[in-house]
Design brief:
binds magnesium ion, alpha/beta, 225 residues, six-stranded mixed beta sheet, Rossmann fold, 10 strands, 8 helices, four-stranded antiparallel beta sheet, binds adenosine-5'-triphosphate, transport, nucleotide-binding, 36% helix
Length: 225
């Protein structure tokens, strides 16, 4: 699915990420853990083609997108990737249905069954009946479900989620993780940032970021100290 080779990211003199090497296979479910400020969001923004200012190489399905125009990038993000943000990022003046519809409006994929696609993902995330509600009329867990439905409506190969359960209680977190697990079992590759080791257990593999470096297991993080 993707390959990161010797990626380095700096803001001026401040190096956020260094010597990042990571391969994610098709169908994997990967958790990324690490302390606050360690560079997790910075890394997944690169993986999600939201940040192109880094050195080293990032290949998504063997393609390098670093010199691709912004328009082209938006199209690729819309067609191939589903991004779930920590704070949901729903449009407050749009209802549930309209929020989920957005990626389909911007996509170049043929969509003659748009209503069906939307009804299908609303059902998948358990929000049938809430189509006309605005985000402010939903619970935190329900808002996160809308964000997930919006991320998957275009049937992306890769879902990237930044702390998808960060704002949720443990029962709701479990329900959200069950949705990700189902999507992964159906073949979608999932990359998820989390602070919560219980949440990370849903993933097949966990990597750790510490001081801008990436480690494959907790032991190597400890040995580094
Ligand atoms: N635009 C920016 N300019 C300068 N420094 C930045 C910028 N964005 C992020 N940083 C710094 O980069 C580092 C990594 O930030 P990042 O958001 O990736 O951390 P994180 O691991 O996702 O943390 P959290 O768990 O709190 O979300 C932080 O020290 C942050 O202050
Ligand atoms: Mg973050």
């Amino acid at each position: 699915m993707l390959k990161v080779t010797d990626v380095k990211k700096a803001y001026g003199k401040f190096t956020v990420l260094e010597d990042i090497n990571l391969e994610v296979a098709d169908g994997e479910f990967l958790a990324i853990m690490g302390p606050s400020g360690s560079g997790k969001s910075t890394l997944i923004n690169i993986l999600g083609l939201l940040d192109q200012s880094y050195t080293g190489e990032y290949l998504l399905e063997d393609k390098n997108y670093q010199n691709v125009s912004d328009n082209e990038l938006s199209r690729i993000r819309g067609d191939q990737l589903g991004f779930v943000f920590q704070n949901f990022k729903l449009l407050t003046t749009y209802n549930v249905y309209e929020n989920i519809e957005i990626p389909l409006i911007y996509s170049k994929k043929a969509q003659n069954n748009k209503q069906e696609l939307i009804a299908d993902v609303i059902d998948k995330v358990g929000l049938t009946g809430k189509e006309k509600n605005r985000p402010s009329e939903l619970s935190g867990g329900q808002q996160q479900r809308v964000a997930i439905a919006r991320a998957i409506v275009n049937r992306p190969k890769l879902i990237i989620a930044d702390e998808p359960t960060g704002a949720l209680d443990s029962k709701t977190s479990k329900e959200i993780m069950d949705i990700f697990t189902k999507l992964n079992k159906a073949g979608t590759t999932v990359i998820m940032v989390t602070h919560d080791s219980e949440v990370a257990e849903y993933a097949m593999r966990t990597v750790y970021i510490r001081d801008g470096h990436l480690y494959n297991d907790e032991k190597s993080v400890k040995n580094h100290d």
